[in-house]
Amino acid sequence: MPLAKLRPMRLNGHGAYPGKSGGSGGGMGKGQGRVDADEGADARPVSVARRPWLRSLPWRMQVQSRHRLQSRLGRTLPSAPGRVARRPWRTLRRVLSVALLGAALAGCHAVTTDGPHHPALLPPGLRSAGLALHHLNIASGLYVRRAEAGDGLVMSRQEALAGLTTRGDSLTWLGHSTVLLRLGGVTILTDPVFPVGFSLESPLPHRHALAPIGLDDLPPIDVVLLSHGDYDHLHSPTLKALATRFPKAPIVLPDGLESHGEKAGFTTVEHPPVGETVVAGGARITAFPAVHGTRRNLLAKLDGEAYVWDIRTAGRAALFVGDSAHGPIFGEIGRRGGPYDLALVPIGAFEPSPLVADMHSTPEDAALILAELRATLGIGIHWGTFALSPEPLRDPADRFLAASDGNRRARVLRIGETLRLEPRGN
Ligand SMILES: [Zn+2]
Ligand SMILES: [Zn+2]
């Protein structure tokens, strides 16, 4: 495992990768080396830069050597060994993240083994062994495809900001299942995950790519909507930041997850059971069950449910499927609530299918879901952002579009892209 893959990624001031495209933010050069702002050659502590052998010593020995050197020279060496001194915390943080994430993902999948055996899955014993390896790969970053993500997947910051000024109904894909929906005068943010802080309670999986805009660039939010509690969907630091920035916005999440909304500081926390409707921020939002399990750690009981949300605003009907396998529920939702103006459907993390077929839909399943919902427009989400599976980065998008061949209702966006919805009746 190259060390570069294990290092946490850092942001520049715009919440985007530092790269050859400079201040434009989102443009990520293919395979370029990304250097932390404090790791450039100029920023190296002088003591370390002049004495490279200091680097090869463990941190505590480096500090002792530095002290000995200072007393021998009779003066204080310039600048504290900033980079060196931060390493133990970074390493500890990474180790904890890997351990927690591995445990959480194992827990997540363990939930699904209670149900009827999916015909595409391996027998339970083999599957458990396979999942253990799969989780290790996720936690260690083996599935990361940053070079592929750099090939035009992410919009530039300027383009993304320009998209936010779009008038009328629109949606902006901010990566994975994070979508800014502006429908009928209501602004809804789904499954928000931004790199706004680290929490042992919410370690994030490794990323292929970051959104070119950050939480501070968002317009006023009327509702925060969560599909379920997995780490790639419920990120406590992001929820805290949102509750601080938009103190009047309610959060709507599945039953059993309400404590996460309360702890984050939301004053209004809606957690309807399946089949019930809440009115929040001017939208009517109804809970349907997703074909998915969630458990945030191995020691916890089943930690909330996973939902599909039906969203109604003045003149618009949308369905948000944050993370789900295909199942008969989508035919039922289509019969009850279709046709939909817009459906957000998960298309990624479907490999290795013999291990995860009862958790995640394939792109072909997602195209089938669109047909069952009778959706006018379907956007593929839950791909291109977090390194959760071994499939090539663009396979979800390519296969989703191919499965909907000749049918213009299926679309995929670049991260940060805004799509204006046709006025109703067109
Ligand atoms: Zn999930
Ligand atoms: Zn997910």
List the helices and strands and how they pair.
Elements: H1 3-6, H2 46-50, H3 59-73, H4 82-112, H5 124-140, H6 146-149, H7 157-164, E1 170-173, E2 179-183, E3 186-190, E4 223-225, H8 236-245, E5 251-252, H9 258-264, E6 269-270, E7 277-280, E8 283-289, E9 307-313, E10 316-321, H10 329-337, E11 342-346, H11 353-356, H12 363-373, E12 378-381, H13 395-403, E13 410-411, E14 418-420
Parallel strand pairs: 3-4, 4-5, 5-6, 10-11, 11-12, 12-13
Antiparallel strand pairs: 1-2, 1-14, 2-3, 7-8, 8-9, 9-10
Helix pairs in contact: 4-5, 8-9, 12-13
The structure holds zinc ion (2 copies).
One zinc ion (ZN) binds at residues 228, 230, 292, 294, 323.
Please tag this protein with its features.
single chain; 426 residues; alpha/beta; Metallo-beta-lactamase, Chain A; seven-stranded mixed sheet; 13 helices; globular; binds zinc ion
Note down, in words, how this protein is organized.
This protein has 426 residues and is an alpha/beta fold. The protein has a domain at 148-420: Ribonuclease Z/Hydroxyacylglutathione hydrolase-like (Metallo-beta-lactamase, Chain A), CATH 3.60.15. Helix content is 31%, strand content 14%. The strands form 2 sheets. A 7-stranded mixed β-sheet has the order 6-5-4-3-2-1-14. The radius of gyration is 23 Å and the shape is globular. The protein binds zinc ion (2 copies). The site of one zinc ion has 5 residues, from loops.
Short description:
With 426 residues, the chain is of the alpha/beta class.
